[in-house]
Design goal:
This protein has one domain: Alpha-Beta Plaits. Helix content is 27%, strand content 32%. The N terminus and C terminus are likely disordered. Strand 4 and strand 5 form a beta hairpin. The protein contains four helices and eight strands. It starts with 11 loop residues before the first strand and ends in a 13-residue tail after the last helix.
Amino acid sequence: MQKHHQPFGDIWTLAKGTNPSAPRLIRIRENLNPAVLELTLPHLLRISWSLRGEIEAGLPSEEETKELERFENRLVPRIENDGLSVLSAVITDSGKRHWYIYVSNVDAVSNDLHNMPQEIEPYPIELTLHRNEGWRFFRELIESCRGMTRPPGLEPHD
C-alpha cells in the first residue's frame, strides 16, 4: 500500500473468523482513541464494494484484490490528510468489502469521494452514513476481535 501523511497513525491489527459460516477478515486500526475522537468525528461512513468474483466463499479474487487495494490507496490519502476523517476498519465477508470511516464534516468527505480519480467504470460502491454515538461500532468490533485468530503468516513481529 502507498505511504501518505497519516495524522492518526497507522497501527493495524488483522483478524480472521467466520460470519456465521463464511470467512471474515478484519483489519482494524488499533491506535485510535474513541474517548478523544468521538467528540470530533461523530459520524460513521460505511463504503461497501460488492465483490464480482469470489475464490473462497465471500473473499475476493487476486485480480479484484488489486482493484480493492488501488481504490483504498486512492481513498485514504484523500480523506485523511485534512484530519476530518479516519479509516477505522476494513471488513471483508459475505461477498463484500466494507471500509468504516469516522468523519466530522460529511459534506467535505462527500466532496473528496466525488473528486477521487476513477477507473474507466465508476467504482461499484455504496455509501451508508450513521451517527455512531460513542464510537459504539468501533468499540464493539475491537471487543469481537479478541476471540478471533490472526491469519497464518500475519503473526506480530518484534
